[in-house]
Amino acid sequence: LAAFSGAATAAVSCDADSEKPSSGNGAGFSNSLRIPPILGPETGADGMKQFNLTMQAGGRTEFQPGKVADTWGINGAYLGPTLRVTRGDKVRMRVTNQIGETSTLHWHGIRLPAKMDGGPHQMIEPGATWTPEWTIDQPAMMGWYHPHLHERTAMHVYRGLAGLIIIDDDNKPDLPSEYGVDDVPLIIQDKNFEDDGKLDEDGVEDGTWGVLGDSILINGTFGAEFKVTTRTVRFRILNASNARVYRVGFADNRKFHVVGTDGGLLERPVEVDRVKLSPAERAQIVVRFAPGEQIVLNSVGETERSAGDPEEDDYDLMRLITAQDLADSPDLPSALGGVPATAPPAGARVRTFRLSGSEINDKEMDMNRIDEVVPAGAHEIWEVINTSYAHNFHIHEVDFRVMELNGHPPPEYQRGPKDTVFLPKGATARLSVKFNTYVDPVSPYMFHCHILRHEDKGMMGQYVVVEPGTENQVARTINAGS
Ligand code: C2O
Ligand code: CU
Ligand code: CU
């Protein structure tokens, strides 16, 4: 039995009329924030850092005091450990599937050859072990791993299969960096619970949005409370929810700084009072605290979800209590060393993607169809036009920059390296996308909506990266090509 709560006391109080625990003062948030443990690798004779990961069913997790939920996890009952690696490391993941059904494990935001990507084609049968290897070759960032089985991703993630990957490199601006103390990951997920404390799976594989939960877990902690012991804290926030979009900030609307986006650090900190995160997006923020405070991390604002009128969608996420004596923290550096954006070359190829209800360019995902063929190293413009209700758009393997959102540059805090962009109803995004040089004309990478219900319904396509000049020789049908 895994109880993530430290001293488990009262559950989050839910107002009977409203379906969400949003009181604004964090009442009931008293379970110590769980910090995902860092998994130490084994170092093989070949110098590879090997991470042993077992996807397991049968977890029993006490999210709410005295109530047990059946959960899935990686090396544990719910969620998985944090993998910490350094640019230049050669890594080997040994992924064993013990969940009793086929799955995959995808390294979201990680740059690597398509065969190692863990997308829908790299299936791991029950009882089998899959062992991808690659060299970490990208700037410091936080990515994550999660299953990606076609039509089953939403359920596998909802039950608890997900974890973080943190990459370090030689660029070390003076930011808070003690893991779990002043450099704190926050994996935000919304869930529905049955009265007996079990995860309510109704709707996960149904309807327009799949599941929209009325309870929030942070790192698998229900009603989370975090004790701040330093003047400033860096939070690395991941929206690992199936469908919900958060506008993260503080109940007192204090300002804070964004220092990083999905794919790494910004060039300089950007002051904001909210960051919007759709499923799979990340933000690194640095927040300043005073001694003896009680503050609530929350999400407020309109959903931008449906075609109809916007609805308010307010949630308390976590309570923060600051110590009477706070340890000193570094001053926020004015330069962070993030990689500057480079504009696409004149005449860059433009590809257009129209998102509708559950299709991209009027097509549903077909595992046997290659949708796009990209020459290695290309720098292209991908224009994503949302013709319907809210979606987002994630491209495997790449860092991109959002050049324009509805004809304007995006908010400054979203101008860093990205792999996922949110498109409210009717929005258009122009992305500057630089592709890698891991050539493989047969194994595709995915691009898709990361609202997991939409992805499972087929809102996904496939691209391959090929030697420049060979685009026309590539088989568009995977079976024919192999
Ligand atoms: Cu989070 Cu296709 O990925
Ligand atoms: Cu991905
Ligand atoms: Cu979508």
Automatic annotation (TrEMBL):
CDD domains: CuRO_1_CueO_FtsP, CuRO_2_CueO_FtsP, CuRO_3_CueO_FtsP
Record SUPFAM superfamilies: Cupredoxins
Keywords associated with the record: Metal-binding, Oxidoreductase, Signal
Plastocyanin-like domain residues: 64-171, 207-290, 356-466
PROSITE patterns xref list: MULTICOPPER_OXIDASE2, PROKAR_LIPOPROTEIN
Annotated coiled-coil segments of the chain: none
Family: Belongs to the multicopper oxidase family.
Descriptive protein name: Multicopper oxidase domain-containing protein
Organism of this sequence: Actinoplanes aureus
